[in-house]
Amino acid sequence: xxxxxxxxxxVDDEPYYCEIAKDWFEREGCRVLTADDGVAALAVVxxxxxxxxITDIRMPRMDGVELIRRLKARGSYTPxxxxxxxFSDLEPREAYDLGIEAQLSKxxxxxxxxxxxxxxxxxxxxxxxxxxxxxxxxAIQAQFQSLQSAHDNH
Length: 154
Description:
By secondary structure, the protein is an alpha/beta fold. The chain has helices at 15-27, 38-47, 64-74, 92-98, 110-121, 124-128, 147-152, and strands at residues 7-11, 31-35, 52-56, 80-85, 100-105.
C-alpha cells in the first residue's frame, strides 16, 4: 500500500507531536486521524479502518503497548504499528512479539518516521522478494598448499 492511499492514526498525549505528524503525513497524501491516548485510539479504530498506527508508548489512561496488545487480541486485523518514545521502555523482543514494525526515539525526524511507516505498509512479498545482494559481484580466487596454510593465512 502506498502512503497516499493510507489512513493513519497518530496517538500521543502531547498535542504538539500529533500536529507535527499529522502535517507531515498529510503532505504525503495520507488521511490522518489523531487520539490523545490508547482509550481514545480504540474508539477511533472501532469507527474507522486504519492502515497504520503511530503511537507514543507512555500515555495516561492506556499506553501504546496496551493499545497494540488490545488491537492484536481482537484478532480481526492489526494495523501496521510504529512506536515512539522518549524512553527505552519497550524491549525489542516485546515490540516484535506485538507486531510493532519499528520502534523510534523521540524526537524523530520526518524522513525517518515516514520511511518507517512506508516500510510497514509495503507488501511483504514486494519488501522481501528482491535480490538480497545489490551491486557488482566479485569472485576471489586463492590457492593454498594445504588447509592448514589457508587457515594460517586468513
